[in-house]
Amino acid sequence: xxxxxxxxxxxxxxxxxxxxxxxxxxxxxxxxxxxxxxxxxxxxxxxxxxxxxxxxxxxxxxxxxxxxxxxxxxxxxxxxxxxxxxxxxxxxxxxxxxxxxxxxxxxxxxxxxxxxxxxxxxxxxxxxxxxxxxxxxxxxxxxxxxxxxx
Length: 150
Ligand SMILES: [Zn+2]
Known about the structure:
By secondary structure, the chain is an alpha+beta fold. It is built from two helices and seven strands, in the order αβββββββα.
């Protein structure tokens, strides 16, 4: 009689053990799911960043020849540099996702008037020096800006 009770007790204990194992298994699955879910907003954030700003760049050309190409995004290191042409110089400033001519020795100084620009399709032109800064973006960016301006 006592032995039978002990046997039953042992069976109950074994079942509880199994139950605990199942619960622990689910715990692990739930924890893994939670960790995965917590990464989703981060993934969307990264994707959004790259599709908005990834492909915007400025092309600086002198007399129709491309001199340099600068990627413009918020991580671009601010810098100033001089573009020398046979007719004179233009000091170009890059700040964040913006670029522009801040000084030049051309007679009209029209190139300094737009200030810093950052929209794809915008151009800064110095006619006397034949210097052109043109901003180009990925198709995504252009579509987005069209959408906003409408
Ligand atoms: Zn100019």
